[in-house]
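A reminder from the course coordinator: this example appears on the midterm review sheet, so study it carefully.

Given structure:
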């Protein structure tokens, strides 16, 4: 049997001493950064994230500056930096904005703080902590692949992807609520152990009740909830540059746009919403039109208008386009196309049965007298939407077929 001599513990003692020194250094650096007001720069260099700014406000909200260490009146254009806070009374609200990325509105009776990522985290995102009240938001759809915004309450954390959302927190009951109109939000509880997580999608909500310590499975929003959320649609950012780009891209979406002088969406804010976007595929060079709709309230209708000039329906046999569902998005049972002249609607069509792959649809005019078309509208209504009262369709190669061109219809639809 081998007998071992006494062990030398000097090495391990030195290691412990070195580790202790390192921890003291880290603690000292953290204290220095915190006390000197330089924590913001250490947490996230300003150049890594675009500024989060106060775009507008009503009433007399208050702003706590971490640098000044005091509450003060809010100013338009102020930067909302890490460690800063904003609070609103019942008659105040504040709009916050990251240009081309995020728009938010802090409602009355709320308080929110901007947080940092911590010294050792590398993710680039905006982190906000809602202590009390309600925040509405809209992020660009391009943000779907990247988590750029995270909103926490005392009980949950909501990781936001390209979406339109609402987060509420009640400091008295410790109840939190998250609702989504478009996109999805990953919601997790803040418990140290046994955290719960759910994914909230289109037209869904979830609630966390501290009394039950249960994060509810997502459920379809109610009409009352929709009414309280629809204001978030106002936050969708539309700049003049964006609109100019849309007008230019439309010219590549098909021959119809050779005759078009304007296009956009129509809706009644209290009973629905619609938006359109032309997107160019960098690989194929093809331009696609995506039309989204929300006709949740009964009786609502929304859509896209296309205004035309010098478009004589007599010279054309039909309107033709390719249509497909938008991946992972709801779609309608059908919608209505209206062809208008100065004297009113002259033709209506009812496209139906949309597939995941592209399909061609063609709609004959059958107009034998000179007739100038002034407008073409795509109308989505609650009555025609079916299961998905919020959804989208995408279109490409939207063109007019001349009378002289013999081309069989791939999928003619009902004319009403």
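Designed residues:
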């Amino acid at each position: 049997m081998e007998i071992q001599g006494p062990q030398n513990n000097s090495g391990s003692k030195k290691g412990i001493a070195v580790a202790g020194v390192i921890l003291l250094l880290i603690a000292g650096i953290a204290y220095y950064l915190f006390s000197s007001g330089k924590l913001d720069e250490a947490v996230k260099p300003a150049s890594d994230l675009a500024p989060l700014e106060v775009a507008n406000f009503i009433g007399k909200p208050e702003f706590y500056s971490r640098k000044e260490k005091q509450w003060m009146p809010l100013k338009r254009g102020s930067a909302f930096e890490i460690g800063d806070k904003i609070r609103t009374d019942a008659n105040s609200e504040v709009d916050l904005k990251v240009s081309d990325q995020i728009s938010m509105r802090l409602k009355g009776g709320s308080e929110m703080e901007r947080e940092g990522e911590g010294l050792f985290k590398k993710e680039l995102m905006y982190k906000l902590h809602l202590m009390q009240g309600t925040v509405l938001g809209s992020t660009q759809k391009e943000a779907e692949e990247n988590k750029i915004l995270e909103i926490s309450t005392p009980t949950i954390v909501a990781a936001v992807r390209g979406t339109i959302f609402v987060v509420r927190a009640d400091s008295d009951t410790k109840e939190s609520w998250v609702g989504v109109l478009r996109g999805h939000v990953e919601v997790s509880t803040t418990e140290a152990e046994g955290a719960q997580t759910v994914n909230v999608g289109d037209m869904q909500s979830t609630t966390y009740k501290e009394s039950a310590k249960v994060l509810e499975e997502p459920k379809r929003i109610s009409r009352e909830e929709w009414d309280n959320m629809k204001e978030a649609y106002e936050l969708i950012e539309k700049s003049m540059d964006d609109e100019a780009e849309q007008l230019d891209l439309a010219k590549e979406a098909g021959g119809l746009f050779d005759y078009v002088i304007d296009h956009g969406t129509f809706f009644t804010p209290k009973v629905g919403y619609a938006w359109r976007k032309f997107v160019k595929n960098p690989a194929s060079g093809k331009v696609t039109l995506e039309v989204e709709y929300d006709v949740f309230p009964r009786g609502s209708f929304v859509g896209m208008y296309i205004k035309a000039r010098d478009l004589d329906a007599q010279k054309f046999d039909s309107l033709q386009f390719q249509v497909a569902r938008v991946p992972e998005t709801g779609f309608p049972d059908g919608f209505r196309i209206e062809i208008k002249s100065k004297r009113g609607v002259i033709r209506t069509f009812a496209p139906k049965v949309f597939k995941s792959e592209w399909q061609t649809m063609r709609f004959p005019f059958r107009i034998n007298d000179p007739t100038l078309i002034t407008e073409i509208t795509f109308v989505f209504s609650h009555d025609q939407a079916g299961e998905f009262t919020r959804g989208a369709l995408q279109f490409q190669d939207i063109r007019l077929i001349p009378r002289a061109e013999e081309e069989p219809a791939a999928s003619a639809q009902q004319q009403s």
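The chain has two domains: 44-222, 240-415. Residues 1-7, 37-47, 406-416 have pLDDT under 50 and may be disordered.
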